[in-house]
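Section handout, structural biology tutorial.
Before the tutorial, make sure you can parse a SMILES string by hand: atoms, branches in parentheses, ring closures as digits. In the record below the ligand is fe (ii) ion, and the chain has 179 residues. In the tutorial you will relate the predicted structure tokens back to the input. Do not try to memorize them.
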Amino acid sequence: MAILSIPDLNKTIHDVSEIRHFLNTRGIFFDQWQADVVFEDSANQEEILKAYESSLTPFMNSGGYQTADVITINKLTENYEAIRNKFLAEHTHSEDEIRFFVDGEGLFWFNLENEPVFNLLCEKGDLISVPEGTKHWFDAGETNPFVKAIRIFIDMSGWIPDYTGSGLEGRFAEFRVER
Ligand SMILES: [Fe+2]
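Predicted structure of the complex:
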């Protein structure tokens, strides 16, 4: 289940309805889907997409999303450090970045106008949509990364990081989620 943190205010929110309200009032879509399916390591993309079809299809239809795939990152992922670094610097995209966490976890950081930076730890069952143009970055962790997530796109080409070059992520490099 998700955890929202605002490091500069020393604030951590565990309550899911409070998290949903916090995000929704800032234009960030957040939801939780039933995620009680356990997959073998060998589970392929089709099996995973099929298992969540009943949640995925209506969501995709209502948002006009065209494609979905599954990304898996774990300690066996080659070039993990390079992959991690690619999304660890503050960036935006020209389309929404939508992730449903089938398993594992990852930390989304948000830098909105006139607000302290906050982050959302996404875990199994969490669905997040980072609106296009929102300054954000993502971290799957320095060691022992584990992410299994469905990615949902209108147009995959919109999902290229456009770096802001702020270097803001560096200020939060030592942050650890209070569980
Ligand atoms: Fe991103």
